């Protein structure tokens, strides 16, 4: 018996073993004209295997790149696109740095801290007051999502002062326009008695 586990590893398994065998045979063709003709036929078959991808930009370019990858970059043909380089294709991605900023109050999230920093930079005036009011209401909304029972206005005002280092304060006549009833919750199913 010939098992897949005993066969050579597939470079691009999404095309299957038959396409890989065609590419292997393509590498053995010595006549350049015949090799170009066979390569175009293999590209047509590869394209027919994924008709839903035809609307993607550079679909043909991607197929030619895949053909070169399956041929281990050893294929010499007249391709309509430049031959890809293995070093570029198999290049490891750069490591994404993990954010190192600690979040004091996780229920508000990092974005509130960033907005507060921007609000602190603004000059005193109506814009700064309006932004501070929006921040306070958003903080209350965020807090209510996590704790629906006990969120006082004093908690929000204290947290805002802490997060801004005492640089943001609300107007003395400020009223929160958010109450618990404004926070969306899961709709309850209506009780229906069983039919007998």
Describe the structure.
- The protein has 196 residues and is mainly α.
- It folds into two domains: 9-89; 110-182, no CATH class.
- It is 46% helix and 0% strand.
- The chain has seven helices and no strands.
- It starts with 15 loop residues before the first helix and ends in a 33-residue tail after the last helix.
- The mean pLDDT is 83.
Set down the secondary structure blueprint:
Blueprint lengths: L15 H13 L3 H18 L9 H12 L15 H4 L20 H12 L4 H21 L6 H11 L33
Helix pairs in contact: 1-2, 2-3, 5-6, 6-7
Q: What descriptors fit this protein?
A:
mainly alpha, 46% helix, 0% strand, 7 helices, 196 residues
Mean pLDDT: 83
The count of strands amounts to 0
Query: What order do the SSEs take from the amino end to the carboxyl end, as H and E?
Result: HHHHHHH
**Unreliable runs, pLDDT <50, ≥5 residues?**
none
Structural class: mainly alpha
Most strands sheet: none
Cα-to-Cα separation, first versus last residue: 61 Å
Identify the overall geometry. elongated
Strand content: under 5%
Oligomer: single chain
Alpha plus pi helix count: 7
| Rg from alpha-carbon coordinates | 31 Å
Number of domains: 2
Helix content: 40-55%
């Amino acid at each position: 018996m010939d098992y897949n586990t005993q066969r050579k590893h597939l470079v691009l398994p999404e095309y299957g073993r038959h396409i890989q065998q065609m590419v292997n045979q393509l590498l053995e063709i010595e006549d350049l004209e015949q090799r170009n003709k066979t390569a175009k036929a293999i590209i047509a078959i590869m394209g027919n295997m994924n008709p839903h991808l035809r609307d993607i930009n550079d679909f043909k370019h991607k197929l030619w790149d895949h053909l070169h990858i399956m041929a281990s970059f050893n294929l010499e043909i007249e391709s309509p696109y430049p031959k890809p380089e293995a070093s570029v294709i198999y290049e490891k991605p750069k490591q994404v740095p993990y954010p190192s900023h600690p979040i004091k109050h996780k229920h508000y999230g990092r974005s509130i801290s960033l907005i507060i920093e921007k609000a602190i930079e603004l000059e005193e005036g109506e814009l700064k007051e309006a932004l501070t009011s929006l921040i306070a209401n958003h903080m209350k909304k965020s807090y209510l999502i996590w704790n629906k029972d006990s969120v006082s206005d004093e908690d929000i005002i204290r947290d805002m002062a802490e997060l801004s280092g005492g640089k943001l304060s609300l107007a003395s006549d400020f009223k929160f326009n958010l109450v618990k009833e404004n926070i969306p919750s899961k709709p309850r199913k209506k009780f229906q008695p069983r039919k007998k």
